[in-house]
Input
Amino acid sequence: MGGTATRTIGDISVDNYHGYFAYNFGDEDAKVRPYILGGLGATRYGSVPYSVGSVSGETESNSQFSTTWGAGVKLYPSPKVGLKLGVRWTPTYIKSDATGWWCDPYWGCYVVGDAQFSNQFEFSGGLVLRF
Output
């Protein structure tokens, strides 16, 4: 039998750079304040040095356009101290593979692609101090 082997060569660094807009619902002094956020930016995948047998090198780093979307809630059991719980999703477009042709009587024929994304999910929580 033949085949391929899977080998771990290292850890990749993933850095996100996003500007975002957040909106907090409710009054400023409310005990419960849900929020949403959305933003645009870039995700950078770092290079990874490797050495497998007598072959060594380094993978290339790469940056791609990405968006970020999130929601959560801020809970204030006291007027000045609270708790923040949130979730964030950051999809990053990686590439598209051609999957076939689509023909339209008005626009003509063109290649249809299957987009591939890297999806990052973040669940966070923390202490909030209100001044």
Observations:
- The chain has one domain: 14-129.
- The first strand starts at residue 14 and ends at 24.
- The beta strands are 14-24, 32-45, 49-52, 55-58, 62-75, 81-104, 108-129.
- The two ends are 68 Å apart (CA to CA).
